[in-house]
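Batch manifest, entry 17 of 40.
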Amino acid sequence: MNTNYSVRLEECDKITAIKIYREITRVGLKEAKDVIDNTPGIIFEDLSLLEANEIIKKFRAGCCDVTLVNDSTNSFDSEPGNIQYEGPDISKLEGKELLDILKKAKDTIATAEKLQVELEGIEKSLEEIKKKTKDIENKSGFITYLGTIISAVLGISMFKFIGLIVGTVAGWFVFAIIDSMVNGSKNAEKAQNYYNENYPPMENKKNETLNKAKRFFYSPEFTEAREVIPNDYFDSISAEYLVKVVENKRADSIKEALNLYEEYLYRSRMEEMQRQQVEASQEAAKAQQEIAKAAKEQVRTSKQIARNTRATTRAVRLNTFINLMKK
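Output type: structure tokens
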């Protein structure tokens, strides 16, 4: 029987995990607590696939996040690892030979990036499933909302605004407890059903993709790509540029291609700095225009005030003169 499987506990309520672990192993409280305290980590080893699946089923029934680990395929030290590059000396390749090997490396890098995106998407989906499970379990029902509304109406009718606040808070608290007592078990059952329907298939997809990725990273193609393109340039954008300059006969060796790419990166950085400087200058000029506009408006306002003051003074003087003439 193949006993290369382990069970890894990722996340779980500690009391629940200890209880399930003791039910499976029949060990004492202290021994179980010591194991669970060291999680996330492996909690069962050297299991058959059937044994591992039975344990996983029990932990998932308690809403625990557990994963199946296949020790024969998950170890980085096992086959197909430790592959050494046995191809030609990259530094001596030119022309079509160099172009062909660069194209292969570019395609390999694109595959690696695709696997990375796929795994990140699966991880995100797993987190969303766990979050939705908790949301379903903690969902407030009709009793909570209706009770809160009634409490708020009574509060505002008796004590106005303060009554509204107190009634809303107290109503939500009291009726949420009642709602939990009435519908808590139903919500828990719905949450468990949702978790069991969605999490295991997605986790299996994650394990399959991980194993696929690990086999790929130990493949001769990936080993060759790592040898062809240095770590600092190991991405699809850099690889695409290297292929382009060799294909257009602007470079005859990998060293020349890398030097051209460094020059391109330097020019790009300089252009970006210049663009930022131009934008900063434009912003400064715009600010100066705004200041000049504000100063001009202030001068215009001052002149208007001065004209109004002079007009008022003339009116006062004229009225004074008229009054003197009437006497």
